[in-house]
Amino acid sequence: MTGRTVAMEITRLEAAHLASLVGQFTELLRDSAPEDGDPALARLVPAAYSDDAEAAREFRALTQSDLLDRRAADATVVLASLQDAARIPEDPEDPALLEQVEIRLEYPSAQAWLRTLAAVRLVLATRLGIEAEDDHDVSDPRFGIYDWIGYRLDGLVAALDRDG
Length: 164
Description:
This protein is mainly alpha-helical. It contains 5 helices and 2 strands, in the order E-H-H-H-E-H-H. It has helices at about 10-30, 40-45, 55-80, 105-130, 145-164; strands spanning about 5-10, 100-105. Strands 1-2 form a two-stranded antiparallel sheet.
């Protein structure tokens, strides 16, 4: 299982946008703490005990730093694998922006991608106020990035399932 490689095709423009989103995600992880009250960050370290606030607080105090460090390490893997693909020309009319590039992910990197895309999507859902499926307004253009991350996440999951 660990010897598998997944090939993902993405345009340079998509890669640049994804690298920007993941970069913003790493800034959130670096510059914030769950106790700051940011609900998006709190959603990344959910309560372990919904019926015992004190136990949940203790568990979070013991685990949140490690969990957020692992999320940051995963995001670093994603950024590294996007580095070449995200190089785009400065000219917005350059057809190279839409050039398809292949990103090859070894199994551990693909797992880091899965965790990072899911975490970025959780942050976006929180920022957009999505708590249930009914909260998603397909006619609202702000949900486009959320949907696109979901599309990429679904494709990666399917590729890993197909190869497994």
